[in-house]
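User: Could you go from structure to sequence for me? I need the amino acid at each position, not a summary. Structure tokens:
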């Protein structure tokens, strides 16, 4: 999970840097340095989510595949799933009226 959080943050930060560079100076050196970093962070994010056994059926794997923010979406989904109480059988109560 630590690798996923780090890679997701690197993916989002590197995308921000690439977009800011594109919108401002469009310096080729920045794109040459940060572009491969962004691509590597994206791949590490996708692989890291698939390595976590609890991600099957949670939707985190598909969220991780979204370029740019997928890692953050997957981390958020996994945190939500771990904090939710386990699903048990539905218990019906009698209507008090």
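Assistant: Here is the amino acid at each position, in order:
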């Amino acid at each position: 999970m630590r690798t996923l959080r780090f890679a997701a943050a690197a993916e989002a930060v590197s995308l921000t840097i690439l977009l800011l560079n594109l919108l401002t100076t469009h310096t080729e050196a920045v794109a040459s340095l940060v572009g491969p970093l962004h691509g590597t962070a994206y791949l590490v994010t996708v692989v890291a989510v698939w390595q976590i056994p609890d991600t099957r059926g949670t939707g985190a794997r598909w969220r991780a595949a979204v370029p740019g923010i997928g890692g953050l979406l997957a981390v958020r989904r996994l945190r939500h799933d771990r904090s939710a109480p386990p699903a048990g059988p539905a218990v019906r109560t009698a209507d008090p009226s």
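One structural detail worth keeping in mind: The radius of gyration is 19 Å.
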